[in-house]
């Protein structure tokens, strides 16, 4: 059996469903209503990203090359899957989650970086630490930081980074061509939808980590059971995912229910009831400092 176990049919079925919805919206629904197609493409692209996350962690099959091949298509346009995979696995292997020097997914900045920033950019980073700012600006900031980092890596001779971008650019051509020639959706509209899908993903990543002395207390638990929980494939239970990164998305809720007290003790109660609570608390208020607070001298 190619699937890792008999329960992995759920992930495989969801991958097929995601692609079918994407194709239907892009090449079917768009002919009748561009607005309807665009509105539903945004969460579909977010779901595709969530499934990419699932596949890079070894699902749904026993063959990683196959898991990668079925999710490498750049439906979301902006992030090369192979770069996402490498950086995310590095994030998991890292013993210093959140540290801006060591964690490639950290939203904190170092004190030295902060001091070099001009005032307008400092204002942007501070706005980015509100939920509204993260949704609007987070994708741009992520892309700019990745472009700068990867360009330096390529120029220094990192062939793995170069190959990841070559694969991405090669695959993005047929996606853009298909949208241009076979979809009623304007190309610029699809680009906006892809950005919207990236922005929606920012709701999940907004506070899934915090800087704490205890490594175990750095990952959040959001006890949400609504549509965002499904869209993010239960990664709202992020402390559970970090404790057991190889566990499939559909097992996370039951694993959490059986060990709720232990997980909340482990992460020192870094918990929220729902994403609605997060919106109410942080829509226009910074969740914490921009500068990594465990670095001596940080104050902003």
From TrEMBL:
Superkingdom: Bacteria
| Transmembrane intervals | 12-43, 63-81, 162-182, 188-207
A Gene Ontology biological process term:
lipid metabolic process
The signal peptide here is none
Point out the coiled-coil segments of this chain.
none
Per UniProt, the enzyme's principal EC class comes to oxidoreductase
Residue ranges occupied by any Fatty acid desaturase domain in the UniProt entry? 36-271
Q: Name one GO molecular function term.
A: oxidoreductase activity
InterPro entries given for it?
Answer: FA_desaturase_dom (IPR005804)
Q: What is its EC number?
A: 1.14.19.-
Keywords in alphabetical order: Membrane, Oxidoreductase, Transmembrane, Transmembrane helix
Q: Which Pfam families match?
A: FA_desaturase (PF00487)
- What is the name of the protein in this document? Fatty acid desaturase
């Amino acid at each position: 059996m190619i699937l890792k176990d008999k329960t992995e049919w759920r992930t495989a079925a969801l991958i097929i469903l995601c692609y079918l919805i994407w194709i239907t919206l892009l090449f079917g629904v768009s002919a009748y209503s561009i607005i309807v197609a665009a509105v539903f493409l945004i969460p579909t692209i977010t779901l595709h990203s969530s499934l990419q996350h699932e596949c890079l962690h070894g699902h749904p099959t026993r063959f990683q090359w196959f898991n990668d091949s079925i999710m490498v298509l750049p439906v979301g346009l902006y992030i090369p899957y192979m770069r996402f995979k490498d950086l995310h696995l590095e994030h998991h292997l890292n013993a210093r989650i959140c540290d801006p020097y060591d964690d490639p997914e950290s939203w904190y900045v170092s004190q030295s970086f902060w001091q070099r920033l001009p005032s307008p950019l400092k204002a942007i980073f501070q706005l980015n630490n509100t939920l509204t700012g993260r949704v609007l600006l987070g994708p741009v900031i992520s892309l700019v930081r990745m472009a700068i980092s990867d360009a330096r890596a390529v120029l220094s001779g990192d062939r793995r980074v170069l190959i990841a971008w070559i694969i991405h650019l090669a695959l993005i051509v047929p996606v853009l061509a298909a949208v241009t020639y076979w979809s009623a959706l304007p190309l610029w509209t699809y680009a906006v939808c892809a950005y919207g899908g990236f922005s929606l993903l920012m709701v999940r990543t907004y506070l899934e980590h915090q800087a704490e002395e205890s490594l175990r207390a750095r990952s959040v638990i959001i006890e949400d059971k609504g549509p965002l929980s499904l869209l993010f494939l239960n990664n709202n239970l992020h402390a559970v995912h970090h404790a057991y990164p190889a566990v499939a998305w559909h097992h996370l809720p039951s694993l959490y229910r059986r060990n709720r007290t232990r997980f909340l003790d482990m992460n020192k109660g870094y918990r929220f009831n729902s994403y609605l609570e997060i919106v109410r608390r942080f829509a226009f208020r910074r969740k914490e400092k921009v500068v990594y607070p465990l670095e001596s001298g940080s104050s902003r």
